[in-house]
Batch of 4 targets.
Target 1
Amino acid sequence: MRVMLVEDDRAVMMVTSKYIESFGHEVVPAIDGESAIDIFDPNHIDLVLMDYILPGIDGFETTRRLRKTYQDEWFPIIFLTSTKGDNHLALGLDAGGDDYLYKPVTAIVLESKIKAMSRIVKMQKDLLAANKKMEQLSYLDGLTQIYNRRGFDRAISSEWRRMHRDKNTLSFLMMDVDFFKKYNDHYGHQAGDDCLKVLAKALEEQLYRPADIVSRYGGEEFAVLLPGTDASGAQEVAERFVKVIESIAIPHIDSTASEYVTISVGIACSGKSGNKNIKKLIKSADEALYKAKEGGRNRSVLSPN
């Protein structure tokens, strides 16, 4: 474990640090509350030992600020104090502390406290990891293993905020498998599911940047986010999609667009006039997709808006 020791008394700092290191842990020293706040990183510090009497802001206020700054993270804070009494105990717990140790701290008591807290830290990290995995799974489409609609909605909201912050562009592609109902009717729903899995994998393989995202938007519809991509770049990606999907050569006897499975793509770009919000961007791509279908399918169309 990495233990941040917040203590202004050099003698106490030295003795307590030696104890902690003898238990096999690493010490991160801080001599006051301001230093503790500057140094602290929940990804690299597992436990905080906090003296409540400090120069500048005291340990209670330092704890409150740490809890407020990292309110989505959990880490144990144990107060070190030479003052006994229920009032100080209550103040410390109200500030966000988890336990108390009274000075002078003995090695055996300190080691027992750190062991107990390390067990809690491990359980908390295991729980957070499990929750994170469950959350990630909730954003995936069960059939194709790419983002589902929920994952897409989350991603486009995040990218829209990033686009405005960075004053960049965001392109959006809406695509539909041509005559997919006829494909299902002729080849069967199992073949339809297999087809969607192949197409999803092919689309994902055509995205070369980590920020680019493909999702199953619904049924036989797919959506792609291209952050930092202008209209011409989005057109290039869309045309690549169209060609690659047809080149897979999945037979589609009932299609009038090709003898193979194909897609139609509508393209919209946030940099074009009129796309002032997410709904407008999606609507523009959807309208362009409709024009691609009207134009014979197996093609892409860029929205003028």
Target 2
Amino acid sequence: MSMTSARPRPAGVTILAVLAGIAGFIGVVHALQFLHILPVFLGTVAFYGYDLFGAFLWALLAIIWTWAAAGLWYMNPQAWRFVVAVSVLHLILDGISVFGDSTLQALLPSILLGALVLLYCLTPGVRRAFGVPAS
């Protein structure tokens, strides 16, 4: 990935990159909550009795979000597709976590953020910025 961009970054892509960075931060917070390092204020978090595995998955997702945010920031043409896929993966991991004995209240902010990123990716302005034709 090159550090210089040939085309200017639209405001919508900047907002999306910031949201992806926030999603990465949320992934770190959830990983630390599954490790019982950070407290959980909105409910309980548990991952099928294997909280260490849940922490690993959330930490991995946080790394992926950080990479995706960098791709968006530098206007990497493949970043849009990658962020769509990662946001779907994020929502799937939220669902698996809820079914794995975490409360919906504990993961609701994460679910809302993942859905917001996915929906924002699908707006015509963001699609146009990455050269994806509107459906």
Target 3
Amino acid sequence: MAMPNPQRAWTRPEVLALPDDGMRHELFDGKLVMAPAPSRTHEILVLSLYQMLQPYVMAHALGWLSPLLADLPLRGGQVAQPDLFVLPHLQFDEDWSNAPVPMLVVEVLSPSTARYDRGLKRRSYQKAGVPEYWIVDVEARLIERWRPGDSRPEVALERLLWQPREDVAPLEVDINRVLEIPSAP
């Protein structure tokens, strides 16, 4: 099969029908976004964030935290595969087609995806009403927090507070702890 042409307008069914070629295939506003498999550092950071967020999500019955690849529709024909996300509930079809809008989406920047994470993806998450979108920038040692109406991110250098509901105490995310990368044995 020929390489997909990412320049033309794509549909959700077309993207979901693409063969497994080792690339991530996402769709935002008709634009096909392809990226190679994540690096070891990227995956370690996603796991670190998962381990930090999971006890909080469970303790406060916020929903379901997932580091799994998913084809989230984001209120329409999108195909979003965030690094990490929290869904408010699990009542949706096996194929993700009617999954709810996540209450949190986290993307760890990679050189091949940074411009999409900060541009096209961010605008799509904001337009879909995702309450919080975090961009983890390892090189700059910070987390950008975006909310639906923001034109600029809140930049967290040391700590980030996440309070998805007013009736629960906020979670304090220690950014230095999140960005610790263990060396290979």
Target 4
Amino acid sequence: MRTSTVLTLTSLAAVSLAAVAGCGSRKQSAKPLLVHVGGTMRPVIQALAKRYESRTGQRIDINAAGSGELLAHIQLQKRGDLYVCHDPFLDILMKKFKMGLDAWVVAELTPVIVVQKGNPKGIKGLKDLGRPEVEVWLTDYRHSTLGRMLPTIFAKAGIDFEELNRHKQIPTNKSGGYVANMVKTRNADAAMCWNAVAYLRRDAVDIVPLPPEHLPTPGVDAVTSATGKTYTLTPVRVTVATLTCSAQPAEAEKFARFLASPEAAEVFKQFGFTACQSRKLYEKGRPTRTAE
């Protein structure tokens, strides 16, 4: 397997499967599915795609970038079969661009604090991030979903976020992976990122969870995202949607259902995502009764 902007996951061995007419050789699809995957979800989708291909013979191409960047690509290029993203981009795909068919929530993302291995600065929570000797990196307050959530998160911990920034120069980057890597390379003492981002670096960082009372209240706290959409904070859903531009809608739906399966849910959990009950949010472009 080779890794690039587009990751082509090609099976190397034949696997016997039971066909409708009986037992026979695995049929390999002549045309791969193109799956647009937000960067945070790339590692887990790569692993699931490899498992799916080895079982079915269906080839999967993964186009990985930021969820918002991919949404713009889908809208302009009208290419691809599935879109894996986190909030708030699914609703934009469905309601504004009307380019999604069926969609499921498959996992959730939860913000955490990452600190250097062994936690040498003794960081126990958000208030410790304001200490003068603690060098902190955060995600961009305008161009990242977590960055937009930060004022609410700090306020629930009794911290005035604007006042904190006036007294302490806190560098930011729109990538959670970037700020987590600053801690991993010991160029920072702490950072805030998604739990799945932190989990991938668990060999070099420690994770300090936020208490539930410091997380936004579902259905109550809301924020205006970088896209201009106001959405409810927590939980931040990870979703998969089939696209109207797909040339293989039946195969796209099969892979989407696999990503929404209990088997896939266990893999999401293994990659550090917050587990949730998978449910269908849209059907044929319309919200279902289980949609939030």
